[in-house]
Each structure stands twice: as C-alpha cells, then as structure tokens.
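ARCHIVE CARD
CATEGORY: sequence design from structure
SOURCE FIELD: tokenized fold
FIELD CONTENT:
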C-alpha cells in the first residue's frame, strides 16, 4: 500500500500530514485503479451481407460496355441498363455477356426461352440478337447480346436494357452483374480495343427518391456608378509672357519651273490557254479465258469475279463454275484474301457466303475460315 500511496502524493505533503490522514486517500486511489482495470464489455453480434465490387481499370482509348446498377425491393422486377462508351474507337458491332450469381436471387427474365431485352430506339436502325447462355430455374443466369449495323457507327449512350427478377425472399444487399466477353468491331469487322464494366442489383428495404431539380439563381450584372474626376482650373501667380511681333528679313531666290516628263508604263495582257485534263483509266481486271463450246477434253473452270469498293464498305464477289465437257457433281476451292480486304464474317465466325438460290437439289454447302 505504501508504493501506491507515495506515487500520487508530493514529498512536502508526506512530511506535513500524519499517516492516519494519508490512508483514506491511498485507499481511494487504489479503489479507483482497481475499477479502471476491470471493465465489463457487452455487445450484440450482427451479420451483414457485404459484397465489394471492383471495377477493372480500362484504357481511355478503348470502347467500354457499362452495365448499370439499379435499386430494387424483394420480389421486384427491375430494368438493367447497358451503355456504350466508344471512346476513341469507331464501333459498328458490339457484343457482351452479363452474368448474375449462381443463386436464383437475381435472374434475367425469359419469354419463349429468350431474354426480355430491347434496344434503345434513339440508337437508330440496328440488328440486335439476345440469347440465354446459362439457364437458371425459370430464368437465365447469363445472357448474351449482339448488335451490328452497316451504315454509321453505333453512338455513345444507352444501348439496350434487360429485365431482371428479384426473389421475394431476397436478403438486403448488393448482387453483382458481371460484364463478360465484351467485344467491339469496326466497319471492316476487325476487333478494336474494348472492355466491360460490372453493374449490380442493390436490394433495399426502400427505394430512394428520385432527385428533384431545384431552381438555380443566376447572377445578373449590375453597373456601379463611380465618381469621375472633375478638372479644376489652377491659376499661376508670376510673370506672364507677352507675344511680340518681330519683322524678319527673308531672302528671295529664283524658282525653277517644273516640266512634264512622259513615263513609259508596261502593260501585261493575259492570254487564255487550254489546260489538258487527265482522263481516268478504268482499273484492269483479270478476265478468265472462255472455254469454246465446241472444244473437247476441256477441264472445269472456277472463276472468281471482280468488284469495285471504297474504303469502309462491303462488296459482293461472285464465283462461277464452267464445267467444260465434264460432269461435275461437287466442287471445293480455297480463296485467299488480302489482309487489307478480309472476308466478312458472320456472328459465329463463319465467312459471310451464300449459295446461288437458283441451284436446286444441292447437298447443304459448307463455308469455313482456315485462319480462324
């Protein structure tokens, strides 16, 4: 007890007070120390569903397909927006997959086995297709959307929306919508840098109110009068100069009389001349050598046609068959395209080719890209 007592009292107090008076103070300090060292903690354990969404950084030059985040009540149906930010790219076609969690808490709505999605009418004419890649119960966990157009690039802004259903027993929290397999192509159907940004369905107990616009006071320019200095007349006391008229003698000199001298002026006359105009020469195309109808023992000939096109457009090439004097029941040939004029491809990657509809009784043709 003496150690506790002497650590809180100065030496002068210890000398001037008897031991009987120091004892209650020491007991009080010891009791306060004991209480401070014996706290009682109480708490209630709670569980909260917390999901952290991390958006992958993207380049400022690549096109970006952004899945929106929307609030919802349990049992609600919400509209999920997807916007396109083309950035520095010229996007003529876009593709993206959107995937929910493996549970059935949030799933995309299906009608006739197709997602309930619609393109933004402000986008203009566009070919859109929607498919359910991973079904989930009566809905769909992963959907795929593909958009293509031919004349002008896809504009930036809202591209399309899809309907998602929230389970009635959904717990409050955030349910991610992952943006997968984002892809964009230019007018030549070549891939351009592109990425996707994730969204979410945030299940809440109350939908937050929409922001209400408030009037903004606009400052007006008010002219402020200012005092202008008034000129004052200052009188000077002293000598004043007086004008004096003085007669000055001016000598007279003879004056030369000018004479007119004619000046020769050169005049330039323009003579029109005829400028030769270059006449464009049509390009020279390779032409196949025709097979004479009366010739015998001639081999079949497959001919690839010619086409004219401007940069950024698509052209159609015709391939014809001259059987000669042979009975041809099937053909197979490869066509090698220049890298600057690649063959157009369909959504699945196959070349955009079609057989002549006028040919009947044909086995189903096949077209493949060898460099795929």
């Amino acid at each position: 007890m003496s150690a506790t007592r002497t650590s809180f009292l100065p030496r002068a107090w210890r000398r001037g007070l008897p031991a009987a008076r120091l004892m209650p103070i020491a007991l009080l300090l010891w009791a306060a120390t004991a209480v401070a060292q014996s706290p009682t903690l109480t708490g209630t354990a709670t569980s909260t569903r917390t999901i952290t969404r991390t958006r992958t950084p993207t380049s400022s030059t690549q096109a970006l397909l952004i899945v929106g985040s929307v609030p919802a009540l349990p049992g609600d149906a919400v509209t999920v927006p997807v916007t396109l930010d083309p950035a520095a790219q010229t996007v003529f076609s876009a593709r993206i997959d959107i995937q929910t969690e493996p549970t059935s808490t949030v799933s995309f709505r299906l009608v006739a086995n197709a997602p309930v999605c619609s393109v933004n009418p402000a986008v203009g004419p566009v070919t859109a297709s929607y498919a359910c890649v991973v079904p989930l119960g009566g809905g769909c966990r992963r959907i795929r959307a593909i958009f293509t157009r031919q004349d002008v690039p896809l504009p930036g802004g809202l591209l399309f929306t899809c309907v998602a259903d929230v389970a009635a027993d959904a717990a409050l929290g955030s349910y991610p919508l992952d943006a997968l397999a984002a892809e964009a192509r230019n007018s030549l159907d070549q891939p351009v840098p592109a990425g996707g940004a994730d969204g979410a369905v945030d299940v809440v107990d109350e939908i937050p109110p929409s922001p209400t616009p408030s009037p903004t006071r606009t400052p007006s320019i008010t002219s402020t009068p200012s005092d202008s200095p008034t000129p004052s007349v200052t009188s000077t006391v002293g000598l004043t100069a007086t004008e004096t008229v003085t007669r000055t003698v001016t000598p007279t000199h003879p004056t030369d009389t000018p004479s007119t001298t004619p000046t020769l002026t050169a005049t330039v006359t323009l003579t029109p001349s005829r400028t030769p105009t270059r006449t464009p020469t049509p390009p020279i195309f390779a032409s196949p050598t025709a097979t004479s109808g009366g010739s015998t023992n001639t081999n079949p000939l497959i001919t690839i046609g010619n086409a004219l096109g401007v940069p950024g457009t698509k052209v159609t090439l015709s391939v014809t068959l001259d059987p000669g004097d042979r009975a041809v029941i099937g053909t197979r040939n490869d066509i090698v395209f220049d890298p600057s004029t690649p063959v157009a491809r369909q959504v699945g990657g196959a070349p955009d080719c079609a057989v002549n509809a006028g040919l009947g009784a044909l086995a189903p043709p096949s077209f493949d890209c060898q460099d795929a």
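CARD ANNOTATION: Residues 1-48 have pLDDT under 50 and may be disordered. The two ends are 90 Å apart (CA to CA).
SHELF: design records, drawer C
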